[in-house]
Design brief:
Elements (H helix, E strand, L loop, with lengths): L25 H16 L5 H11 L6 H13 L1 H15 L10 H11 L3 H4 L11 H18 L6 H5 L2 H26 L2 H17 L5
Helix pairs in contact: 1-2, 1-9, 2-3, 4-7, 5-7, 5-9, 7-9
Length: 212
């Protein structure tokens, strides 16, 4: 299992790297992982295929089948599903042009709030002043806490993982799900919704043009 905090011999060092003999930086690892996630989100994949690719991406096992099974366990865990549901309701709300979280900012928020009881509870805290990164941090903190406390064994590997690895995986799996969900939302959007979005985008662009 690996995250940007992992040792330099992480399997990420061989992924699309222009020079395999060069030690990757944390930023370059994050860039590579996000590239893979964007590529995956652009395809129509089955749950098994998603689990397989994510399991390999996050180095859950040397055995591809075991890596797939571990990721499927996470994706099917009730705590994970409930937290995704909350994220969909409080942040996505069927929109398809929202920003995706930024890992380094998410990580800072997780470390700042991981011991806050209200961030681990089932009911969501007040979100009025939140950015996208707060929603991601809330998702990670809640999901990890509930899986850790759950008697179910289907995602036991997450409880046993190093904390930095566990939160990194949870945040990036959510990034994939958000991108994939927004792709679907855009496909099923009505013509009126698409035109409204186009108008809003054009108006936003006009606002940035300085007056003569």
């Amino acid at each position: 299992m690996a995250s940007p905090h992992s040792e330099p011999d992480s399997p990420y060092s061989d992924m699309d790297s222009p020079s395999s003999d060069r030690i990757p930086t944390l930023d370059s690892i994050e860039e590579i992982v996000m590239k893979q996630i964007h590529l995956m989100a652009g395809k129509k994949l089955t749950l098994a295929a998603v689990a397989g690719q994510l399991g390999i991406l996050f180095d859950l096992s040397l055995d591809p089948m075991e890596a797939q099974q571990k990721m499927q366990g996470l994706l099917k865990h009730p705590a994970f599903i409930d937290a995704v549901d909350e994220f969909s309701t409080t942040y996505l709300n069927w929109k398809w042009d929202l920003p995706v979280g930024e890992w380094w900012k998410i990580e800072e928020l997780i470390k700042a709030h991981k011991d806050d009881v209200e961030w681990t509870q089932h009911s969501c805290p007040e979100t009025k002043e939140w950015t996208v990164n707060h929603f991601y941090a809330r998702f990670v903190i809640r999901t990890f806490h509930e899986i850790k406390c759950s008697p179910l064994e289907i995602a036991h590997w997450l409880r046993e993982a190093p904390y930095d690895d566990a939160i990194y995986i949870l945040a990036h799996v959510l990034m994939f799900l958000q991108l994939d969900c927004m792709r679907v939302c855009k496909q099923v959007a009505s013509f009126k919704d698409r035109m409204d979005h186009l108008v809003d985008t054009c108006e936003g662009a006009d606002d940035t043009v300085p007056s003569k």
